[in-house]
Specification:
Layout: E1 31-33, H1 39-52, E2 62-65, H2 66-73, H3 80-91, E3 94-100, E4 106-112, E5 116-120, E6 123-127, H4 130-136, H5 147-150, H6 156-166, E7 177-178, H7 179-186, H8 197-215, E8 218-227, E9 230-240, H9 253-256, H10 259-267, H11 271-281, H12 283-294, H13 302-313, H14 324-338, H15 341-352, H16 357-366, H17 374-384
Helix pairs in contact: 1-2, 1-3, 2-15, 6-8, 10-11, 10-12, 11-12, 12-13
Pfam families: Rep3_C (PF21205), Rep3_N (PF01051)
GO molecular function: DNA-directed DNA polymerase activity
Family: Belongs to the initiator RepB protein family.
Length: 395
Amino acid sequence: MAKGPELDDIPRDRLSGPLRRGAVKKHVAAIHVSGKLTLLQRKLSNVLLLNAYDTLTSQARHQIDARTLCLMIGYNSNDIDTLKAALRGLAETVAEWDMLDADGQQEWGVSALLSYAKLKAGVCEYAYSPALAEKLHDPKVFALINLNIQRRFTSGHALALYENCYRFVRTGSTGWWTLDLFRRLMGVADSPYYDEFKHLNAKIIKPAVAEVNKTSNIIVTPELRKLGRTVTEIRFRIAENPQLSILDIDDGAGHRNSDVYARLRALGVSDRLARQWMTEHGEGHLRAKLAYVAGQDGVRNAVGYLTRVLKDEAGVPAPAPLSPRARRLERIRDLAAARTPTQRDADKRLFMARLEGAARDDFERHGWMSALNADAIVTFWQEVHPGAFDGIETG
């Protein structure tokens, strides 16, 4: 089962972006998940993996703010019982793999999706077994999916089909699956109703294919093999969906692997802006400007200073001293940029829950720079970061 990335921007220093395989192996390894996973559990599993991805093999335990986790998956952050039930389901669900290792030896393994999970003081802590973590961290085995796309799904069967097809997007086909295996991948192996292909096709295959093709960045087409009149195997042809390719935003894998990108992110530059600057100015030029900024004494806002340096050399006059309002907006921008992508998404959801009517519309258009919500935005960020605006006079 392929799992997933990104919010619109997933910086590699905090969370992983959507991975792209390099050379496609003749043999594409598979991890199959047995048992039924609800749509909520599938989304939870993807967000947990995304949060842990960069430290999967270097850390035994991982943590994420429980409120952020709830909001990322789309349910009430106060509904702790639902979160407990979803985590319990992942700990009780088995992942199985059967593949060739690096030496060409056949390897079979089985593991719970989560080795444990606990909630304490508003934090969700969880872990994977070492063997499963190693498999999940291998980009040749496992393709992270786009969380923007994941959130669009309304059916667990459709999301399961997408996950199991997406990791084969480079090969163009899943290869042939027996119907028994396909039922397991869809989580319906325990239901005798779906032993008949006509029921499986009408209730699972056709609706799932329709939602994947409407919702995601790929188009899947089922093909069948028969023995006589009996369907015995199924595979899915996979092509990119040109109408929704914009959802699969270039993750700038080359940029994100650069030391310049890492230094920009460490300063608090947003993922998108860092990639934009690297495209516009080049790594060498940015490296020199970063060294220049680092050598200046008394710079409190390195991001703002670097921005002005880049604008000045492009012939844009340096800005006049900032007004208190502008300084608050700059502080809000920096605070938001410093949050992880999961936190940024949760912040917006939390704030939007307070709004309605014209105020909500204005925030949707302008985000944290919304003039109509300026006072409420300051209040919100003071709650998130007490003292964030100390030293900035009102006005």
